[in-house]
Amino acid sequence: MILVSGGTGFLGSELLKQLTDKGLTVRAIKREKSLIPVLLQNNALINWVNGDINEPATLADAFADVTHVYHCAAFVSLNSKNKKQLFHVNINGTTNIVNLCLAYNCRLLHVSSIAALGIPKKGEKISEKNFWEYDSKAHAYSLSKYEGEMEVWRGITEGLNAVIVNPSIIIGKNAGFEGSGSIFKMVKNGFPFFTNGTSGFVDVEDVAKAMILLMESEIEGQRYIVSSENYHYKRLFSEIADGFEVKAPTKEAKPWMLGLAWRGLKFISLFTNSEPAITRDTAESSTTDSNYDNKKIVEATGIQFKPIAQSLKEITQHLK
After folding, report:
1. Could you tell me the superkingdom of the organism this chain comes from (predicted)?
2. Considering only CA atoms, which of 166, 203, 156 is closest in space to residue 181?
3. Is the pLDDT confidence value at 269 over 60?
């Protein structure tokens, strides 16, 4: 039996779709109040069980007869005020999954993040050989994903059969305007600025595909960057604008401008009790050149990534 945590999320739901498209019966963990995505409603091959990765006692039934576990559940935020919840879910929750996999002798595929690979060195691509270097200014999200990944490595030293994936920024039509989809909303609404930074991007369908290929392989004790292409934000915004048939951003948002923006929005959020659209962490990330090497995953699985330009066209057409 296959078990998936985070099955109601953006990546988890795509993974469940691909697994059931192969005719596989899957068990998926969801929190009691979580809604099943439209993508998965009326799917008879999915057995939904209520549980919480931070409450191991609720997962005993979920792990019965399970041989393979995809751990997709995570809390994503680049707002430093959410540090406590980030650590609670991404570290403690992963610890619980690792311990249960050890207890039930399950093979684990853990979804980490490129955020756990550390800060890029100028002029170099980040690969799986990169190791985290201490940085007192590191994002709380990055720290939580790094520490969560360390729990998996701890499990591996204790005999856990596991493999780790580090996806770059995941995009896809089913994100809507939430998460990475907020970029599309911003451009669609006529945002005039672009930032002078680069990052890796990958289609959600390819991430799920890579995960299945790795799980079905004999590979263990390895981690893989899952990224299609490195894209400059100006190019990304321009191609999104083309897809929506709106004017592309033409003004560069300088670091000092972003500094004023996140400070102002943080101040406003104190009175509105809402999440600021730009935080210090997102501002810094958007002006950093982060380039990722996907050679290892390509050589291991033979996967052919969908070009990001194609993904952007599909997403904008869907969101129109």
Report:
1. Bacteria
2. 203
3. no
Distance between CA atoms of residues 54 and 92, nearest Å: 7
Contact 189, 177 (CB under 8 A): no
Chain-centre distance of CA 6, in angstroms? 11
pTM for this prediction: 0.90
Instruction: Over range 52-81, report the average pLDDT.
Output: 89
Count of C-beta atoms within a 10 Å radius of residue 124: 10
Determine the 3-state secondary structure of 237 from DSSP. helix
Return the number of other C-beta atoms located less than 10 Å from residue 251's C-beta: 10
Give the 3-state DSSP-derived string for 1-18, with helices as H, strands as E and coil as C.
CEEEECCCCHHHHHHHHH
Give 180-187 contacts, CB < 8 A, sequence gap 24+: 181/315, 181/319, 182/277, 183/236, 183/237, 183/240, 184/240, 184/244, 184/315, 184/316, 184/319, 187/237, 187/240, 187/241, 187/244, 187/246, 187/248, 187/249
State the amino acid at position 87 in one-letter form. Answer: F
